[in-house]
């Protein structure tokens, strides 16, 4: 191989995962031939997950969209014909101009985390839609419920230092399956285990993670808030408290103590389906171990009471003073460490005529409803990028009905012909991470990671930014900021007046591929209090919640659908369905590629032997999972890994590739969480029958 034709390009994994890996791409003769994890980046540590280590199969897949197309069949049918970029862009611009003349809010951008890059995910796209005056999108589909509960209690989205937890004595892995969805973070937990930490996993399912922990505690879905209240009751009743920390760095302790008095382990046992003694000893162990770390994750964020549940859990380390230690406290997200410069990147100030068209925000989590109802104004166009709503949003029947509207103008910009793409009027080909420039923060570590383009765009694929530049020109948006290059956008990603970004320069990022934020090492965010709440303290009592009409104190918010909270519904649909991430998929990304589909096999439903026997279901049987919203099919896996009363279907499958044209979101509800307006995917009663 001649040296001139071979190079190694520094890249970032773009997917929605806390690990945000730094990658190195070997390129020969203009073709990427090898992808590996950057060895020197501490968190990545030279390894990639099972999906991204085969990334070239995604980049060079023969399923890639390579040309713009327009629809020739019915909506949803997926029949298209090739057109030029000129025709595609002119069609979109003409339609947007026509709609905007009446009311630009009838146009809705729809995007989530197909790429987490700040350039391709939240820069030129945001500028374009802000300038247009389109409806704003509330991006709630993943993390907003917990974020709200955390914020009310702790303040900023800043938790314990993920690299410091190696010195914890006790780690509660709460509502997460890091062996599958946070593998690089799991490495630190394993190191803690080697150093003598006890690991306890709190999850209705005996996951691969639970199997590697010392103890598995399996509450019913959506009952974590009750478990945390009872833990607080025990800590307070048995005086397992750090009185000094409470006095100096919290507010509302007396009211909290009063509130949780009734929430005994016996009470929580009746709600969570756990033994009172298990709850009591969990609380005692937590109260006595220092440093103790709670790695809470998104599994408990997908139920009606999710905001309050995260809030209740977030109170625990302030009671025990665990925050004093580098390896103590709690960790949900550390995204708030990154001083992302939203004003520069997204330019919300471009919104044109707020007087005539007061900004309107639409919640992405019930997009079906938003498309179907006669809003003010009704939605007439949707532009989807970085997301696959038809497959990932709850209550698919409603979502598909919305996208099937003949009078809705739908643009989809994608790498693949997803379930959503089938509904496009204009389908545009997108570049992969190897074909464009980007820069990334992370929600699971403290390193900014840079992504240089490694190869030329495949076919006629274009990056998101480029499409919005071209559309801006056709719309007559003449501001210079619409011609900024991706390099220029990348250099605005972080607010460089913020001390945390000192050293995180474009030059340093380019040279090394990644740079740690300028934070102390380890960073111990709340050792001296300094919570970023209005009071500067950990708020057991939160005035901000009272002002929003919520209970200002930790409370119990039951699931919308469960045997105890909705017995009438449970008569007909007695089983609680959860649909957490499958190891070989990343939401619906990878779920169309042969290697990963083969590894997952086919849609599965894990069911406890008792529940299976009652329904004459044997292992391997095809079953139908249904409720009033819809139905999907799967292969039964009869196993004691899931507790009785709960069934699990690892997700998210493509509807059109799963045999019956449906995935688990056929049955999930579009109701919203108590805080943050998030979806309640795992708050869902069903019946399961053999077919
Ligand atoms: N391989 C892979 N990795 C992923 C993803 C993927 O699809 N595949 N998705 C990425 C994304 S977008 C996200 S948001 C994160 C998600 O990251 P996590 O939230 O860590 O998701 P999971 O790893 O499934 O862990 C959730 C766990 O919560 C459990 N659970 C479900 N309901 C409850 C409940 O009510 N209480 C408790 N205590 N546990 C419950 C589930 O059984 C599951 O084991 O992972 C990211 N990483
Ligand atoms: N039942 C159930 N449903 C769920 C979940 C669950 O656990 N259970 N998890 C939920 C969660 S946590 C999340 S975060 C959401 C995720 O929902 P989404 O963010 O919609 O995630 P993906 O399904 O991976 O779809 C992302 C799409 O973006 C495309 N893409 C990638 N890069 C680019 C790019 O540069 N440009 C353009 N234009 N497109 C690009 C990909 O090809 C992919 O099709 O799903 C939610 N849905
Ligand atoms: Mo997510």
UniProtKB/TrEMBL annotation:
GO terms for molecular function: iron-sulfur cluster binding; metal ion binding; molybdopterin cofactor binding; oxidoreductase activity. It holds the Pfam family Molybdopterin. Residues 6-63 form the 4Fe-4S Mo/W bis-MGD-type domain. Belongs to the prokaryotic molybdopterin-containing oxidoreductase family. It comes from Parazoarcus communis. It comes from the Bacteria. Keywords: Iron, Iron-sulfur, Metal-binding, Molybdenum, Oxidoreductase. This is Molybdopterin oxidoreductase. CDD domains: MopB_3 (cd02766), MopB_CT_3 (cd02786). Its cofactor is Mo-bis(molybdopterin guanine dinucleotide). Gene3D superfamilies: 2.40.40.20, 3.40.50.740, ADC-like domains, Dimethylsulfoxide Reductase, domain 2, Formate dehydrogenase/DMSO reductase. InterPro entries: Asp_de-COase-like_dom_sf (IPR009010), MoPterin_dinucl-bd_dom (IPR006657), Mopterin_OxRdtase (IPR006656), Mopterin_OxRdtase_4Fe-4S_dom (IPR006963), Mopterin_OxRdtase_prok_CS (IPR006655), Prok_Mopterin_Oxidored (IPR050612), YoaE_C (IPR037920).
């Amino acid at each position: 191989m001649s040296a001139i034709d071979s190079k190694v390009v520094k890249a970032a994994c773009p997917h929605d995962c806390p690990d945000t890996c730094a990658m190195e791409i070997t390129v020969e003769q203009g073709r990427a031939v090898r992808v590996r994890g950057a060895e020197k980046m501490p968190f990545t540590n030279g390894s990639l997950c099972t999906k991204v280590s085969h990334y070239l199969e995604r980049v060079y897949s023969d399923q890639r969209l390579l040309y713009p197309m327009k629809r020739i069949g019915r909506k949803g049918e997926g029949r298209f014909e090739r057109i030029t970029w000129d025709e595609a862009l002119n069609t979109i611009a003409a339609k947007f101009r026509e709609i905007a003349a009446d009311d630009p809010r009838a146009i809705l951008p729809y995007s989530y985390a197909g790429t987490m890059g700040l350039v391709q995910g939240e820069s030129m796209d945001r500028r374009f839609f802000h300038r247009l005056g389109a409806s704003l999108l509330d991006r709630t589909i993943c993390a907003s419920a917990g974020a709200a509960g955390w914020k009310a209690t702790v303040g900023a989205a800043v938790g314990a230092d993920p690299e410091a937890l190696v010195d914890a004595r006790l780690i509660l892995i709460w509502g997460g399956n890091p062996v599958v969805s946070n593998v690089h973070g799991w490495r630190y937990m394993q190191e803690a285990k080697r150093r003598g930490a006890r690991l306890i996993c709190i999850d209705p399912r005996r996951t691969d993670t639970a199997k590697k922990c010392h103890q598995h505690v399996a509450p019913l879905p959506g009952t974590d808030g009750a478990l945390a209240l009872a833990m607080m009751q025990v800590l307070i009743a048995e005086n397992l408290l750090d009185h000094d920390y409470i006095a100096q760095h919290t507010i509302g302790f007396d009211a909290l103590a009063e509130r949780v008095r009734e929430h005994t382990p016996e009470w929580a046992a009746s709600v969570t389906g756990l033994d009172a003694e298990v709850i009591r000893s969990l609380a005692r162990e937590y109260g006595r171990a220092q440093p103790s770390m709670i790695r809470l994750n998104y599994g408990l964020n997908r139920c009606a009471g999710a905001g309050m549940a995260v809030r209740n859990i977030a109170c625990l380390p302030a009671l025990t003073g665990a925050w004093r230690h580098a390896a103590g406290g709690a960790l949900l997200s550390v995204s708030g460490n990154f001083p992302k410069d939203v004003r520069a990147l997204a330019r919300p100030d471009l919104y044109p005529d707020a007087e005539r068209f007061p900004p309107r925000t639409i919640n992405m989590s019930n997009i079906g409803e938003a498309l179907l109802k006669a809003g003010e104004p009704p939605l007439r166009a949707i532009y989807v990028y970085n997301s696959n709503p038809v497959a990932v949003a709850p209550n698919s029947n409603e979502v598909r009905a919305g996208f099937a509207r003949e009078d809705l103008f739908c643009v989809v910009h994608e790498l693949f012909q997803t379930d959503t793409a089938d509904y496009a009027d204009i389908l545009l080909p997108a570049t992969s991470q190897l074909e464009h420039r980007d820069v990334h923060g992370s929600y699971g570590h403290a390193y900014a990671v840079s992504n240089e383009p490694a190869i030329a765009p495949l076919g006629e694929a274009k990056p998101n930014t480029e499409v919005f530049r071209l559309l801006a020109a056709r719309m007559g948006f003449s501001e210079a900021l619409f011609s900024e290059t991706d390099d220029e956008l990348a250099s605005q990603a972080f607010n460089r007046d913020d001390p945390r970004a000192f050293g995180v320069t474009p030059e340093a990022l380019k040279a090394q591929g990644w740079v740690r934020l300028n934070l102390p090492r380890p960073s111990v965010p709340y050792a001296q209090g300094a919570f970023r709440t209005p009071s500067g303290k950990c708020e057991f009592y939160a005035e901000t919640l009272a002002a929003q009409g919520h209970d200002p104190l930790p409370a119990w918010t039951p699931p919308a659908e469960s045997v105890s909270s909705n017995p009438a519904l449970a008569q007909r649909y007695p089983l609680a369905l959860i649909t957490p991430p499958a190891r070989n998929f990343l939401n619906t990304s990878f779920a169309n590629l042969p290697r990963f589909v083969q590894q997952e096999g086919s849609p599965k439903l894990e069911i406890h032997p008792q529940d299976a026997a009652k329904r004459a279901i044997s292992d391997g049987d095809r079953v139908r999972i249904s409720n009033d919203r819809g139905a999907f099919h799967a292969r039964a896996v009869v196993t004691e890994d899931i507790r009785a009363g709960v069934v699990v279907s690892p997700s998210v499958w493509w509807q059109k590739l799963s045999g019956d044209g449906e995935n688990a979101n056929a049955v999930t509800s579009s109701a919203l969480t108590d805080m943050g307006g998030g979806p309640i995917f795992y708050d869902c009663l069903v019946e399961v029958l053999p077919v």
